[in-house]
Write a structure and sequence with these properties.
It is found in: Late endosome membrane; Lysosome membrane. Plays a role in vesicle-mediated protein trafficking to lysosomal compartments including the endocytic membrane transport and autophagic pathways. Believed to act as a core component of the putative HOPS and CORVET endosomal tethering complexes. This is Vacuolar protein sorting-associated protein 16 homolog. Pfam families: Vps16_C, Vps16_N. By secondary structure, the chain is α+β, with helices and mostly antiparallel strands. The strands form 7 sheets. Strands 1-2-29-28-27 form a 5-stranded antiparallel beta sheet, with no helix packed on it. Strand 24 and strand 25 form a beta hairpin. It has 36 helices and 29 strands. Among the domains are: about 150 residues, no CATH class; about 80 residues, no CATH class; about 110 residues, no CATH class. Helix 13 packs parallel to helix 15.
Length: about 900
């Protein structure tokens, strides 16, 4: 190896660079695609004229759609052919569309094809058969008969759509085409000329800029502001407006071929648009423009049907055009010999022409700083040092010494980071390897402090190690995605934008389950987000595949493949099978690792209510049984009498559950039906009245009515002892009601008879009247009297309800009430009055986990208190499992 080899490698790294108007760009040749024009060219036409097709590419290197009508078709013909290319192994798909006259075609961020027809509808087509629910048509507005143009915009909420009505009085917008909420946006400006161009300039509030004559105005879905501006000196019609990928800049094309660029925020201000290129009335002019990322505009200029020039216009700054820059743009062009279509990406632009699919971008600064021959950045020095080291040249030591002695103590660290950043922005694998090896070369010198080798390892090394590992792993993935068998022509920046979940979805759409599984393992994704989700989607695609018609075979295939895989949510597969109307698959998979509640839900969905009820009862789950019964009762076609008779036949149904299913009138009807069929049911009915009294919130009179009915039934069957107990309960609640009214105190129902008598004798529970009179001093004195039979917590509760927190805290004064307080309730009382430390200490002293849980739910805890509670709970749980555990551990230590 010699210096010549080293220079060749350096030259290779910059061989794709080109300079346009003193700015460096690069073009990367991608995979070949189908020559679309060759397909639709009319062989009988001497001029080889074609019907103008719609051509669009999905973002982040996705598939390409080519939509066209046959050349002999009439203008109002609605039969279109759709060709989808840039698919795995370059196997194009062909589809037919006949739902209307197409005015716009684009892709959603989910890689579904979106077609807008002039009848005011948009159509989502799932080209991969990934989710049949997405393949549908939607009406933009019932009041709109026709539209003339449309465009999409991408946001965090999904893919949005805006359309212009034919009468040009308003725009129609939806923020998410999958869950549309229609918005009408009025122009707000009285225009007398037709709108010649428009675009979305802000996706957050759907702000639209539109042009008529030589004017530009804006309108928005949420703002009342309407900016309007006349472009001075412009007499030509504005034919196109385009937003940059970050929605900060706008490019304008006039019909004379001039290109202007401005900032969105400056619309409405003088000279907000600056002329960047003019054709000087040349007959060969720019006919279309598109943004490359957010810093460059590409213009298409056609001299003939077989020659197309792409002009590169700097859109990164607002400097006006000079004669030198205009001449540089005119002379330095990219040439193609077939019709050109452009597709904007966040970091560049895709160029489709003939069988070519190229990617063009402004050279990222990260690459320029390292690979430019004149660069003096730390990354460039480290790259040079590695190249010299690779070819055993002593110059490597010189460059390393420069990095060591640089003004910044972190010069070498910065150099490593710059080389990693350059590698992630580079597209050429050999150059990526050189940059990554340079970074690893520099990292090896970071293991020790260069100025003091005996010192400790630098803490930044672990951070750089992670950065190196992640970048190498992600670049390996990005490079593999571009292989012809995958055909996702994604860049590193686009990969970061997509994220791993969306990338996995795109692989699954292409039926690349095995490769997707390898990706999840490479990225070390959790099973529920990675491999298990892939297996579920594999099963769903088995269900949705039109070629699979044998439902029993589908169910057996899924069961055999997935039954032994832990963590598979079979209920998701079952729901997909139900949606696909594969009911045999549903029934065969219902008992495979599916929870009881999900099984019952699906049985009810299948209208198998009796089977659902029996399954709930067989497992003894009364809540699910109640749920099934209520669903049965609310079903259409089931009258009350039939439902009651069904309940009467269910001898295994618990009585309390039976009563919960019935309203009062239905319960009485059930009792009548039960007595008619069997007189021996009277005892069961009597107990049902008692259960109803205790389990339902009833008034005193209703409770006494229930108990009276029960007593009557017990006497009819000669059960006098039960009847006597019921009568005593009736008299007790009568006395309780009288005492409550007399004392105007808390509710006494539920207390024992002896406790009620004690309360009555001491005239207790006077604190509520005191509270009503704000007699807090008297209440405090009352609390100092001999112990109350109901404790002192009610005193605290009354004060808290009256927002008298200080008064409540006085009842916890240990010097006065220590002998009167219920010590098991002390933690709860401290928590109620927000005395956090005291609450925690008392709970720990009592070894009460329940009290600690109560404190967590009731108090605002500091980080220290939260840690203290968690440690206490851990110790108490250990103690509960084995009280001698701590003793044993102490003896072993």
């Amino acid at each position: 190896m010699n210096e010549l080899d080293m220079n060749e490698q350096r030259t290779h790294a910059t061989s794709t660079w080109r300079v346009f108007d003193d700015i460096t760009y690069k073009k990367i040749e991608g995979n070949t695609v189908t020559d679309f024009l060759a397909i639709i060219r009319d062989a009988r036409s001497a001029t080889e004229d074609t019907i103008k097709p719609f051509v669009t590419m999905a973002p982040c290197g996705g598939p390409i759609a080519f939509v066209y009508k046959k050349s002999e078709a009439k203008s109002n013909d609605t039969k279109y052919t759709i060709i989808i290319d840039n698919l795995p192994n370059h196997r194009p798909q062909v589809k037919q569309f006949d739902r209307g006259v197409v005015v716009f075609v684009d892709w959603t961020i989910n890689e579904d094809l979106l077609l807008v027809t002039e009848d005011g509808k948009y159509h989502i087509i799932d080209i991969f058969f990934y989710d049949s629910n997405n393949d549908k048509s939607r009406q933009l507005s019932e009041s709109v008969s026709t539209i003339t143009s449309a465009c999409t915009f991408k946001s965090n909420q999904g893919t949005g759509l805006v359309a212009l009505t034919k009468n040009q009085e308003s725009f129609i917008a939806v923020k998410n085409v999958y869950s549309p909420i229609i918005q009408m946006i009025t122009l707000g400006v009285d225009i007398r000329s037709p709108i010649s161009a428009w675009c979305v300039i802000d996706h957050a509030d759907i702000t639209i800029a539109y042009a008529y004559d030589n004017n530009i105005a804006t309108c928005s879905a949420t703002s009342l502001r309407r900016d309007q501006q006349t472009i001075p000196g412009i007499t030509d019609v504005i034919v196109k407006l385009v937003s940059s990928s970050n929605y900060k800049s706008i490019a304008m094309l006039k019909d004379n071929g001039d290109v202007l660029i401005g900032l969105k925020e400056n619309i409405g201000q003088p000279q907000s648009f600056i002329l960047k290129y003019t054709c000087n009335n040349n007959k060969v002019k720019i006919t279309d423009i598109a943004w490359s990322g957010s810093d460059t505009v590409i213009g298409i200029r056609s001299a003939s049907k077989t020659w197309f020039d792409l002009l590169v216009i700097n859109g990164k700054h607002s400097l006006p055009m000079t004669e030198k820059s205009r001449q540089a743009i005119t002379d330095d062009t990219m040439c193609y010999t077939s019709t050109v279509w452009l597709s904007t990406e966040i970091d560049g632009i895709r160029i489709i022409s003939g069988r070519a699919l190229d990617f063009f971008q402004r050279l990222p600064d990260e690459i320029y700083k390292v690979l430019d021959l004149m660069s003096k950045s730390p990354g460039a020095k480290l790259y040079e040092a590695y190249m010299y080291y690779k070819y055993e040249n002593q110059m490597a030591e010189r460059f390393l010494q420069e990095l060591k002695s640089s003004g910044s103590s972190y010069g070498l660290e910065e150099a490593v980071k710059e080389c990693i950043a350059a590698a992630s922005n580079e597209h050429d694998p050999p150059t990526q390897k050189l940059l990554l090896k340079s970074a690893l070369f520099g990292r090896s010198f970071l293991s020790v402090n260069l100025s003091n080798p005996t010192a400790s390892i630098r803490p930044a090394v672990s951070v750089i190690n992670d950065l190196c590992t992640n970048t190498i792993r992600n670049l390996q993935l990005v490079n593999n995605l571009q292989h012809i068998s995958i055909s996702i022509l994604i860049t590193y920046k686009q990969f970061e934008l997509l994220g791993t979940r969306i990338l996995i979805d795109r692989l699954l759409r292409r039926n690349l389950h095995e490769f997707a599984t390898c990706v999840t393992k490479l990225l070390r994704m959790p099973a529920e987000e990675g491999e298990n989700r892939i297996l579920v989607q594999w099963a769903v695609q088995k269900l949705n595949d039109p070629a699979n018609t044998n439902e029993e075979l589908i169910a057996d295939t899924i069961r055999v493949r997935l039954a032994d895989v832990p963590g598979i949510p079979f209920i998701d597969i079952i729901r997909a099978a139900y949606t696909a109307k594969k009911f045999i698959v549903v029934e065969r998979l219902l008992d495979v690792k599916v929870s009881l509640s999900d099984q019952i839900d699906m049985l009810l969905t299948l209208n198998k209510k009796q089977e659902a009820l029996q399954k709930a009862l067989s497992y003894g789950d009364t809540d699910l049984a109640l749920y099934v019964l209520m669903r049965m009762k609310s079903s259409s076609g089931v009258n009350s009498t039939d439902f009651n008779l069904q309940l009467a036949k269910l001898k295994s149904l618990p009585l309390s559950l039976l009563l919960q299913c019935l309203e009062e009138r239905d319960r009485n009807n059930l009792h009548d039906e039960m007595r008619k069929q069997n007189s021996g049911e009277r005892e069961r009915i009597g107990y049902s009245h008692i259960v109803q009294r205790f389990t339902t919130a009833l008034t005193t009179s209703d409770q006494k009515s229930e108990l009276t009915s029960a007593s009557k039934l017990f006497r009819e069957i000669k059960n006098d002892s039960s009847a006597q107990l019921v009568d005593e309960e009736t008299r007790l609640i009568t006395k309780q009601d009288e005492l409550e009214k007399k004392l105007q105190t808390i509710q006494l129902k539920g207390f024992s008879l002896s406790l009620i008598l004690v309360i009555k004798d001491i005239g207790g529970l006077k604190f509520k009247p005191m509270q009503k009179k704000n007699a807090w001093v008297q209440l405090l004195e009352f609390g100092k009297k001999p112990s109350s039979p109901i404790g002192y917590e009610p005193f605290v509760d009354v004060c808290i309800r009256s927002q008298k927190m200080e008064e409540a805290r006085r009842f916890l004064d240990q010097t006065i009430y220590s002998s009167k307080l219920d010590h098991e309730r002390i933690p709860y009382m401290f928590a109620k009055v927000q005395m956090v430390d005291e609450a925690i200490n008392s709970a720990i002293k009592l070894r009460s986990i329940d009290a600690l849980h109560f404190i967590e739910s009731k108090c605002q805890l500091s980080e220290a208190n939260s840690t203290k509670i968690q440690q206490a709970k851990d110790k108490l749980q250990d103690y509960g499992v084995n009280p001698l555990k701590n003793v044993f551990s102490f003896l072993k230590s």
